[in-house]
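[09:14] KT: can someone run the structure on this one? pasting the chain below
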Amino acid sequence: MKPQTSPPSGCPALATFLFGKGGPLFDSQPPHPTNAGLCSRHALPDNSAIKAKPPFRKGRVGRRPQSLETDAHLGRIVRVLTSYPTLVISGTKLAQEIGTTRSEVWRLVQQLRTLGVEIAGHPASGYQLTAVPDLLLPELLDPMLRGTIFAGHVHHYYRAGSTNTLAIEAAASGAPEGSVFLAEQQTGGRGRGNHKWHSAESTGIYCSVVLRPTLPPSDVLVLSLASGLAVHAAVSGMSPGIPPELKWPNDLLIAGKKFCGILTEMSAEATRVRHIVVGIGINVNQTQFPDELQPIATSLQLATGKEWSRIELCAALLKSLDREYRAVLGNPDAHAYILRRFEENSPMARGCHVHVEENGGFEGMTEGLDPRGFLKVLTTEGVRIVYSGTVR
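[09:31] RB: done, structure tokens below
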């Protein structure tokens, strides 16, 4: 897409504003805080190169064959069995607890087994968990999210095309703020541009949340940076020995290899945000990657040598994101504080020689973030502001 210096006339106000997992999806140079898609009839200093998307079709969440929302009964069975780990629970008791029949309990238990949940027993003797499953089920996650905007709004899928797509469609259909979409596996996880996000089954966290902030579109870059800080806090809190590194604007690295990417998409009018979807992909317990990703990707398990609890990390992530989001909305000093903390936790943000793949490419030394959150690079021709492009 060619750089655009002024919005075309007649362009609709609905916009999509993107930060890809791996770099911003922003193909122009106006000072807007993301790879935006906001079009308006007047030239706006912060929103001049955003491409409009066609309207979303409503009522599709959880209805496509590859994106069926998890039957709530499955989570209820896991919750009951987890509550009595040393006991064998009869099929009759399970049926009473979850409000169904014994034959339906048997069908659900069989389904859970095919999904990797280890349940011993059969209808005559009863059932018992032989290992606590590390599944991101609402029934297990919600109690850990009390007091956050996400409590009671968790949607789980064993397999989905893209959690961001699910969240965008739900947001366009009126989903409440704080709606969370989680998948055990993505078949079409999206990163920057047309890049695919590798989403191995039940080894990572593939999470998208719906936010409806009372912010102007120009402030959304800071919210994306705050999301990176939320991931940083969650990971550091569970393993202080390996502090991750933030890479502007939306990656997190360990020892130079990427383990997390963030994709932020926005629907907005000229002066207000309708909704934002923040997608976060974290490599948690992967032990191997496709050949083409091995030199550049890692996981928390590979970096630490230990297996991580995905549900504990997911809860820590959402609680941390809740704190960052409330601060952005309620603290007038939060904007500057986020930029300062991002620089402090990003070795490449200042004093690092980088190559920027933008407008033919250029090199220079990073000089921190400007007041809007864009990266400053000192080149032989002076300081340049990076609005888009991969930074290496």
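[09:33] KT: thanks! Residues 286 and 319 are 24 Å apart (CA to CA).
[09:34] RB: yep, looked fine to me
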